[in-house]
Amino acid sequence: MVLVACSGNETASHAASGSGGDTATSQGSGAAPGACKTDSECTSPGPCELGVCGSDGSCSTESVEAGTPLSEQHQEAGDCAIAVCGESGDVASIDDWKDLPDDGNDCSYGVCTEDGPSSLPVAVEAPCETDNGKVCDGMGKCVECLGDSDCGDLTACSAPKCVAQECQYNYTMDGTRIPGQRVGDCHSTVCDGMGSTKVVIDDEDVPVDPDLTDCIVPYCATGNKLEGPAKHKAACGDGTGKCCNTLCCSSKQACLNKMMCIGEI
Fold first, then answer.
1. Paired strand residues for 199
2. Do the beta carbons of residue 241 and residue 251 sit within 8 Å?
3. Which of 22, 64, 127, 193 could form a disulfide with 174 if both were Cys (CB 3.0 to 4.6 A apart)?
4. What is the DSSP secondary-structure string of 87-110?
5. What b/e readout covers 49-63, taking b as 16+ CB neighbours within 10 angstroms?
6. Does the pLDDT at position 27 exceed 90?
7. For 88-125, how does the pLDDT look when each residue is reduced to its tens digit (9 = 90+)?
8. CA 47, CA 71: separation in Å to the nearest integer?
9. Spatial CA neighbour of 237 closest among 247, 223, 222, 227
10. Contact 14/29 with Cβ under 8 angstroms?
11. How far is 233 from 242, CA to CA, in rounded Å?
12. How many Å apart are CA 229 and CA 210, to the nearest integer?
């Protein structure tokens, strides 16, 4: 018997010699088609190992070059590091002190240290909104107040106080007139009992009489500025006359029926 070596994927053949010198040969069939045609058909075990389709149609893996940063989906924000591929297809990390942490607190800021991500407090009295606060306490906490002024201005209708970093308010009684009124407009500005002010009708807030010599005077009615006769026998003219309705009777005259002046002029 004679053996013949086969190359490639061909099957081995054999020949046997008989007494008459005749030879018999059998040929095996070719191998099945390859399992892949492109790299995309091969599974990648991890971010640092790529599936590769070989020339023989079989899949294998190939390590990504060491130091190559992983894609964003494999990165952890704020961990002070960058995830990269290691020497043998594993995942490693390198320091990145620009990848600062964020704890969501207005009163602290992220830093990178030798021990990893950390945070430090911002300056005292810095403005903030965390936990419905208004001002930083210098220790990393956002609080409502550190002093009375953080609770608002002291006004005629409100006296704010900061107690244990919380605002408390003392309100002036409803209806209390405040200083600095506008005189003669038939209205007054008063406290509303809740720290603010409101304008109310005030018929006592009579406009100033522009002419004290006549007998026509301004007055207020339900908040409206009007004019009408002065009080009967009110002083008028040079101060010696007396009012008679809207007329000014001299000291030598009399007022008849509160309607007209009679006597010497």
1. 189
2. yes
3. 193
4. TTS-EEEEE-TTS----S-TTEEE
5. bbbebeeeeebeeeb
6. no
7. 889 999 999 999 999 999 999 999 999 999 999 999 99
8. 8
9. 247
10. no
11. 4
12. 14
- In whole angstroms, give the CA distance from residue 184 to residue 61: 94
Two tokens at 60? 């294998």
Q: At which residue do the structure tokens 């389709």 appear?
A: 53
Place of tokens 């005259």: 253
Say yes or no to pLDDT of 38 above 80: yes
**Does the structure show a pLDDT above 60 at 11?**
no
Give per-residue pLDDT as tens, 195-249.
999 999 999 999 999 888 899 999 999 999 999 999 999 999 988 999 999 999 9
* CB neighbour list of residue 111: distance below 8 Å, 6 or more residues apart: 100, 101, 117, 118, 119, 120
Domain positions in the chain: 72-121, 148-201, 216-263
| Residues paired with residue 7 on neighbouring β-strands, in sequence order | none
Q: Tell me the backbone φ, ψ of residue 150, rounded to 5 degrees.
A: -70, -15
Tell me the average pLDDT of the chain: 86
pLDDT of 159 > 50? The answer is: yes
Query: Residues 6 or more apart from 48 whose CB is under 8 A from it?
Result: 63, 64, 68, 70, 85, 86, 89, 90, 91
Side-chain-side CA neighbours of 124 within 13 Å: the count stands at 6
Structure tokens at 25: 């040969």
